[in-house]
Amino acid sequence: MHAAKGFKLTSHGAAMPVVGYGTMEFPEPERAAGLVAHAIGCGYRHIDTARKYGSEAWVGEGIRASGIARDELFVTTKVTEDNARAADFARSVETSLTTLGLDYVDLLLVHWPQPRVPLAETLGALAKARRDGLTRHIGVSNYTVALLDEAVRVCPEPLVTNQIEYHAYIRQDKLLAACRRHGVLVTCHVPLARGLLLQDPVICAIAAAHGKSAAQVALRWLIQQPGVAVVPRALAAHEIEQNIDVFDFTLSDEEMRRIDVLRDKSVRVVDPQVRRPVWDVG
Q1: Which CATH class is domain 8-265?
Q2: Would you say 224 and 251 are in contact if contact means Cβ atoms under 8 Å apart?
């Protein structure tokens, strides 16, 4: 696992753009594909979707509308925990590819852990999708330290990332350390805490000093940490443009420390009652 080079992070042969475009809770279809195409036009090369999001069709349409060659894009999708059994998993992957209109994805993730299915069965199906050429790389999402340790142990193929909730209002030191120990990248979903960070006085003050938006500072704080990528969602053109415009400034060590302190607020914004694991604290 290496630091960003050319705005990409590398792990186990994958080269993942450090800023991606998230497509969870997308708007009406007539706008969605245009937003994806606009993101690609602004320079995004990493698009993050999932079966559970219902956005795969729009992502595929946006990719085709963009005119960008397929091999220039890094497309991620996910298999829901409802399809953790091997046969269901395989069908879900095929459905995703058909819906996207793609022959393969660049990264396939297990979306949430499923305690009712042996981890080895789900991870075995994930690894098979890679061996069958349906995805170039594989990973997990919302895995705790214990689950990640087990996943690395039982998975026949290397895991590239663990996509987790991580932002300036939640401390994830234990999980970040586990990911680094295994050479697994961290991809941050809800990196802006669903907008909560945008009014934070510390972040706003630092943003004003740099002539940047609060969102840009919150994202920059994340990607200045080793092995961390972000996939923010944005539903307005100017927000899409801002979120990838984070490579022309650097936060000082003192500014990083001022934001670090905010993590003690311990605000988790993605915490589903039905499928959540026992979260690591700190």
Answers
A1: alpha beta
A2: yes
